Hints:
Blueprint: H1 17-48, H2 65-94, E1 101-108, E2 111-115, E3 121-123, E4 125-129, E5 134-140, E6 145-149, E7 154-158, E8 164-168, E9 174-180, E10 193-198, H3 200-208, H4 220-230, E11 256-259, E12 262-265, H5 268-276, H6 299-311
Parallel strand pairs: 1-5, 4-10
Antiparallel strand pairs: 1-2, 2-3, 5-8, 6-7, 6-9, 9-10, 11-12
Helix pairs in contact: 1-2, 4-6, 5-6
Amino acid sequence: xxxxxxxxxxxxxxxxxxxxxxxxxxxxxxxxxxxxxxxxxxxxxxxxxxxxxxxxxxxxxxxxxxxxxxxxxxxxxxxxxxxxxxxxxxxxxxxxxxxxxxxxxxxxxxxxxxxxxxxxxxxxxxxxxxxxxxxxxxxxxxxxxxxxxxxxxxxxxxxxxxxxxxxxxxxxxxxxxxxxxxxxxxxxxxxxxxxxxxxxxxxxxxxxxxxxxxxxxxxxxxxxxxxxxxxxxxxxxxxxxxxxxxxxxxxxxxxxxxxxxxxxxxxxxxxxxxxxxxxxxxxxxxxxxxxxxxxxxxxxxxxxxxxxxxxxx
Length: 313
Ligand code: CUA
């Protein structure tokens, strides 16, 4: 559904966006109306009743009951209207339909991990079917994050040791950005994800395929380049020599580095170990913050990533 009824807003891409935009627009129009009314009356009175001579005095003014009733009752009615249209939208957004598909979300510095009912898991890319309500049950492994999709007009804090939830339905295929809206450390601004809305058929195919588009048959290093993004390695590792939270992959292969357990050569075994057990040997000068990918990645995928790193000389 594309109901772009609100100005200053990204295209509305979820079924609840129209309700949010209507409340937003309604409040904006009221605010604008009263702003102009008050400012013009004020300007008018300042000029009309300005002090014209030395002998001008301020008249003794008592209160004006009809006027005071008007400026009390009118805002009261407006507030009641805002409450009801806001409350209706709010309830729609809080109560997920029974037909919702549940997806579990784990936030950790600095990535989003999505787990589907059939066991498929994906990192940073949340693929959903068009036309079906989706309910996210979210929790954080470390600090507070916040799942925010401006196009859907939804935002919910993701908290350690507590589950929070959120639902939405997108009716047409497309891609929408997920932001982390709670400052969570060095790479907070890189903690970006995507909601990819696909047709129900394409979605089912993707899900059956284990949550990844078919990349077999491509050269290994190219598969590694796709996995580098799909598995969110790019949140912390660059491939151009610059340094983010983790060491760059450029020229890394074959190098001898200093780790907290002594020197190590960056070879196949070192990379494999660093992916499944990142705390085993931590590269000196880098914080021990990498999450383990054990269970999130297959050995074939690790091999492709190693091949990709080897190609970055
Ligand atoms: Cu996660 Cu900011």
